[in-house]
């Protein structure tokens, strides 16, 4: 059963759920759809709280904002079947979220693995989406140092469970240039890790590292895209993301001072980038 996050939220932001055929998904919900609806999708081992600092400001700007825990993630339960966590299956969940909200087409924001899931959703049903922001995401599956730890994570999880994965993560040396995490945040991160469905963690890890390059397919949909990434992103490199934007024929915003999670690390600059993109869309596409 998923962990429950009881931390306070900004005024006007609700912690609730949206019912879809695969089971309810936990969400943060705020605002009204005066200018459209924004659905925000977190990445691997992430959660809706990754967008916590953006939800209310976007709502205040006139958008209905829904940040979602994907199936098996944090406060959303999921099946004990690794095959139920492919990008295609998770993308289908997003389409059901849009249908349940009844406010489509929506603006979609996908962070990291959430960008790959968002892309799968857009390719399945382009008409469900008005625009697509890829945030710290890439053209294909993750490679490099972050991907190299996945086989070790799998072995630790199968042998010792989620608590063992958390303890192993604590043993990784922190990057000397990254700010230290407070005790409160550390407690939340632990609760979030323990709230994952083990099969979901294994299935999404496999999907994250095996996703094919589908950039040309995404461009062919004609959806308006924005690529946003931290200047020091250590998942997909800034060069990879810049090249992806060129292939998509879309604009890029680089967030100064951010690494892989600009929404949490530099929320004001990330908010400015999102609003600049959303509010420049033609009236027929902006809600």
Features:
single chain, eight-stranded mixed beta sheet, 287 residues, globular, alpha/beta, Rossmann fold, 11 helices
Spatial extent as radius of gyration: 17 Å
CATH architecture: 3-Layer(aba) Sandwich
Estimate the mean pLDDT confidence.
Answer: 94
Q: What is the CATH topology descriptor?
A: Rossmann fold
Strand fraction equals: 15-25%
Q: Main sheet, how many strands, which sense, barrel?
A: 8 strands, mixed
Placed side by side, the strands forming the largest sheet appear as 1-2-4-3-5-6-7-8
CATH hierarchy, class: Alpha Beta
Number of helices: 11
How would you classify the helix and strand content by structural class?
Answer: alpha/beta
Strands, count: 8
**Low-confidence parts, pLDDT < 50 over ≥5 residues?**
none
The best one-word shape is globular
Number of domain units: 1
User: What is the N-to-C order of secondary-structure elements (H for helix, E for strand)?
Assistant: EEEHEHEHEHHHHHEHEHH
Terminus-to-terminus distance? 37 Å
Structural account:
By secondary structure, the chain is of the alpha/beta class. It has one domain (14-280): 3-Layer(aba) Sandwich (Rossmann fold). 43% of the residues lie in helices and 16% in strands. It has eleven helices and eight strands. It has helices spanning 52-60, 87-101, 113-124, 145-148, 150-170, 183-195, 198-210, 215-221, 238-248, 262-265, 267-280, and strands at 14-18, 25-30, 37-41, 64-68, 106-111, 129-135, 224-230, 251-255. The longest helix has 21 residues, at 150-170. The protein starts with 13 loop residues before the first strand and ends in a 7-residue tail after the last helix.
């Amino acid at each position: 059963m998923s962990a429950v996050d009881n931390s306070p939220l900004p005024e006007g932001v609700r912690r609730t759920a949206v019912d879809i055929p695969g089971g309810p998904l936990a969400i943060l919900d705020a605002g009204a759809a005066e200018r459209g609806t924004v659905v925000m999708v977190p990445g691997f081992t992430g959660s809706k709280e990754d967008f916590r600092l953006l939800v209310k400001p976007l709502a205040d700007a006139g958008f209905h904002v829904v940040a979602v825990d994907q199936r098996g993630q944090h406060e959303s339960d999921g099946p004990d079947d690794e095959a139920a966590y492919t990008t295609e299956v998770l993308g289908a969940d997003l389409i059901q979220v849009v249908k349940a909200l009844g406010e489509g087409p929506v603006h979609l924001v996908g962070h990291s693995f959430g960008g790959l899931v968002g892309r799968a959703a857009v390719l399945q049903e382009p008409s469900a989406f008005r625009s697509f922001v890829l945030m710290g995401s890439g053209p294909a599956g993750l490679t490099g140092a972050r991907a190299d730890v996945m086989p070790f994570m799998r072995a630790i999880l199968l042998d010792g469970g989620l608590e063992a994965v958390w303890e192993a993560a604590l043993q990784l040396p922190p990057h000397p240039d990254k700010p230290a995490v407070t005790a409160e945040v550390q407690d939340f991160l632990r609760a979030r890790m323990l709230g994952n469905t083990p099969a979901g963690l294994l299935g999404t890890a496999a999907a994250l590292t095996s996703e094919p390059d589908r950039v040309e397919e995404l461009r062919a949909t004609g959806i308006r895209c924005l690529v946003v990434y931290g200047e020091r992103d250590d998942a997909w490199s800034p060069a990879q993301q810049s090249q992806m934007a060129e292939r998509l024929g879309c604009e890029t915003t680089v967030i100064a001072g951010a690494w892989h999670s600009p929404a949490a690390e530099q929320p004001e600059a990330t908010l400015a980038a999102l609003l600049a993109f959303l509010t420049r869309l033609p009236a027929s596409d902006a809600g």
